[in-house]
Design goal:
The protein has 84 residues and is mainly alpha-helical. It contains four helices and no strands. The longest helix has 13 residues.
């Protein structure tokens, strides 16, 4: 699959933009609670053809790039450098 085919057929999940995957209220902590932090590596493209879809997914994911913009604008920003 080429990057153009991927982007043409791609349909993002609105829960990623609206925050449906994340808790809506802050986490309550009391003295003595322990908090763990999980760090994840999102990896990277393995070849030139993978760069465009990788960057699109990166900028469309509000958990990675938190921009206070509507979904349609986030989509347009993620595709700014698209040549095809």
């Amino acid at each position: 699959m080429t990057s153009s085919e991927f982007l043409r057929d791609f349909s993002d999940d609105p829960r990623l933009v609206t925050g449906g995957y994340f808790a809506q209220s802050p986490l309550s902590l009391v003295p003595g609670d322990q908090v763990g932090v999980v760090l994840l590596n999102v990896g990277g493209p393995t070849c030139v053809e993978d760069v465009e879809p990788f960057l699109y997914n990166l900028f469309m994911d509000p958990a990675i790039v938190d921009l206070p913009v509507p979904r349609f604008l986030r989509h347009r920003m993620a595709r700014l450098d698209r040549k095809s």
